[in-house]
Amino acid sequence: MGAPLRPTPPTLGGRIAECRDRAGWTQKTLAEKAGLSVTFISEIENNRRTPGADALLHLAEALGVSLDYLVKGIAESAPEPRPLVIPAALAQAAEEHGWSLGEVSDLMKFRKMVVARRTRAGSTEASDDGLSKDDWLQLHSRFFGPDANG
Amino acid sequence: MVRLAQSPKVMQLVRDLGLSTRGNCLDTIRDHAFKIVSTIIENSPVPVDCLETLRRVVANKYRARLEVISSDEDVHRIAEDYSDFHPHLKRRLSDEFLAGATEGITLERDPYDAVAFRYLIVVDARGERAARAHFTAWHEITHLVVHPQQLRFPGFRRTPLYVDIEKDPLESVVDHVAGKLAFYKPLFGPVIQRLISGHEGLTFDTVEAARIEAAPTASLFATAVGSLDYASRPTLFVSVGLGLKKGERRLLRSPQQTFGFARVEAQEKLRLLYAIPNEVAAKSDLALRRNMRVPQDSVLSQAFASAIDVTLDANEDQGSWETSDEGALPPLDLKV
Questions:
Q1: Which of A91, B147, B232, B242 is deepest in the core (most CB within 10 A)?
Q2: What's the whole-model pTM score?
Q3: Average per-residue pLDDT in chain B?
């Protein structure tokens, strides 16, 4: 799905074929993932048949795209780029320990990927500004230390 | 709930949504979420005729994809299947679901893609968490519904790290709204109302029948809570278990206890772990509340002490319940 964007195909079938193509899937793979027949997929992509509501939802979910995109060709515009603001505690830790900008950026990306979280006690994670230098050191050690995983 | 509605964080969220803080802020946020969901249903190319489709359509509208973890293996599978979603996905999932105690999480794709789904919602359904998975999924989706896009980072997660804290008010708001959306009235209401009128009011049998018919992926517990407001008489949904007094819990957490300056010998007693009232109950004399000690002669105590699964009922008096501050509660006939 990371391929460069091409113009949005004008038909539903064209958009389904385009999304499948971007995922690197054959019609058979999509048929399996969406629980539909290969013949049906082929006919949809060639605009010979229109999927019903249920099939449409299955196709959108299998392809990982919105119904808005499949049905109307509406792609969401990219969000405003957010400036990278390095929290003071992280900047201090990075300076003291000679971390590279790449390492700092990795730590921040790791933190920022979480939009919401549910735990038994409710959400308990601090914003980046709320982390102390020690918190960042711990995170760095987990990320780049000898026992780092992932 | 009134205290929650007056929380500064909740009021700020209402302002951020461009709404008025004049009324009850909790109701304002809930109504706002309902309006959004109702618009999504109206404009959906897929007819929304059941709660399961509603969840799928709302998640799709926010370009969110849902994955459920049923075993540790699933954590690795998701990391592999979505390897292009985010460079740190594997580590994040491992931290949250193999090393941590996360029940559900919403992650954002990086780098951004205009077509592919933007959010990955991962819900833990291993072991006893399976019963909460339906609700957890709605909780995560509700975050996307009630938080304006510009606030999704990280404005609503400003609670201290590694500290035993009270629940964040915004999480409580999301819980409240998610509970309503998970049993969306226009879809769930007709089913539970038909079952209630065909039986003797709201019973566990009615709730189970409604669950099977309208929300098969929900737990009995969640469905019972979602059904409460359809009971015409004051009703309280309770769950009992062993627990400590609030003061005892606080003492056990205190640094003095940690360093051995004061030792608290607290013994867990049978208490109301949950006491969730319906709207009518909130305006009635029904005064049982969370954490109250269950009287020994209540059927709740008998059911808890029973070695086998039993269904018991009894007529009891609210006057047999006591609080340590106020003594016995006012008498009131209770059907337990």
A1: B147
A2: 0.84
A3: 86
